[in-house]
Amino acid sequence: MKVLLDVSSVTLPLSGIGRYAMELARHLPRAEGISGVKYLRGGEVLSDFDADSLLPPVPVSRLRGWIKPLLPYRAVLGPWRRHKALALARRLGEYQDHIYYAPNFSAPPVSGLSVVTLHDLSVFHFPDFHPRDRVNYLRDQIHNSVANADRLITDSGFVRDELLQLFQLPDERVTAIPLGVNDCFRPHAAAQLAQLQTRYGLRPGGYVLSVGTIEPRKNLAGLLRAYARLAPALRKRYPLVIAGAYGWNSGALMEEMRRLRQGGEVIYLDYVPEEDLPALYAGAAVFAYFSFYEGFGLPVLEAMSSGVPVACAASSALPELCAGSALQVDPHDVDAMAAALERALEDDSWRATAIGWGLERSAGFTWQRTTAAVVDVFRELVA
């Protein structure tokens, strides 16, 4: 089987979807049954793709960023994007002997076989978590993928069930394939954590960590309120470290973090380079992730694989991922979140058990298994 893999989402700073596409780009060429892989990036088909040599994207001009939200979607942006998709599909006609694989919600209406991964359906269930243009765009793309793709993939059974119900699809059209975790996320020895002190001023084992884009869906405002309810001595001993690039509609949250940073209890690291993330995870006392909605929850998996106890939301796909290995509470209940953080920091017996549970649970998630399951979907299409 030959595959044309869309790697356009692999950009810096790397998102969860970008990591997903990057890992597939690394593993698909070596997968059993794959005779060749080509890569689509920015409308150009490449014979090779080196994710490690990516350059940061050119910043979007302020004028474009100001004008785009003002353009009517149905009359201008939507038709323009559909025109571009059709033009791309025509250019890809010579690759109709390849299975077109889109790991990021959308695919042009290609003439050959196509598979699309839909990571979540939050734009349908929680449109307030996204800018209007993103909601319009992703709703259109998901509708198009449901209408045109030969097979659909989700990251979890939770999203698969949502998709089947929302679009009334037959079971065989949708396959749930969990993500993997890179083996760089593992417990670290003390010497391996020394860089945390020198580079970030963090004491190994001495902070609560949260990783993810700064945006409303991640419920960082709730995390800040829950953390503020911990005893002052506990906050002094375990500052809250937040790592993630600035996202949409987070101005008020950033202002609140700036205020809390002055007291030394909250540390905002912004985007952390990929090479520093494994030690940052492994050095945490607790990983906190009270997101309102997740299609999978890759940072939680990375934390468990790093040997760190997890306190997270009991919502969306996270119970499926954690399977009892984390403290999980309602992300709307600030008191419950605070109690979970307190126990995760102070209950040594639970901590030891949770670390073992997390390591055992995360061991079953590898990118090799994810890739092999994706290839099985391809194999079913050509059978």
**Helix amount, in percent?**
40-55%
Might you state the CATH topology name of the largest domain?
A: Rossmann fold
Q: Please work out how many helical segments DSSP would assign.
A: 16
CATH architecture of the largest domain: 3-Layer(aba) Sandwich
What's the pLDDT, averaged over the residues?
A: 91
Q: What is the beta-strand fraction?
A: 5-15%
Structural class: alpha/beta
List the secondary-structure elements in sequence, H or E. EHEEHHEEHHEHEHEHHEHEHEHEHEHHH
CATH superfamily annotation of the largest domain: Glycogen Phosphorylase B
Please provide the count of β strands.
13
Overall tally of structural domains = 2
What's the SSE blueprint?
Elements: E1 2-6, H1 16-27, E2 36-41, E3 44-46, H2 62-67, H3 73-91, E4 99-102, E5 114-117, H4 122-125, H5 132-148, E6 151-154, H6 157-167, E7 174-176, H7 194-200, E8 208-211, H8 220-228, H9 232-237, E9 240-243, H10 251-261, E10 266-270, H11 277-282, E11 286-289, H12 298-305, E12 310-313, H13 318-322, E13 327-329, H14 334-346, H15 348-362, H16 367-382
Parallel strand pairs: 1-2, 1-4, 4-5, 5-6, 6-7, 8-9, 8-11, 9-10, 11-12, 12-13
Antiparallel strand pairs: 2-3
Descriptive overview:
The chain is of the alpha/beta class and 383 residues long. It folds into 2 domains: 2-180 and 366-382, Glycogen Phosphorylase B (Rossmann fold, 3-Layer(aba) Sandwich); 190-362, 3-Layer(aba) Sandwich (Rossmann fold), CATH 3.40.50. Helix content is 43%, strand content 14%. The chain has 16 helices and 13 strands. Strands 3-2-1-4-5-6-7 form a 7-stranded mixed beta sheet, with helices on both faces. The protein has a 6-stranded parallel beta sheet with strand order 10-9-8-11-12-13, with helices on both faces. Strand 2 (36-41) and strand 3 form a beta hairpin. It is globular, with a radius of gyration of 21 Å. The protein starts with a strand and ends with a helix. 40% of the residues are buried.
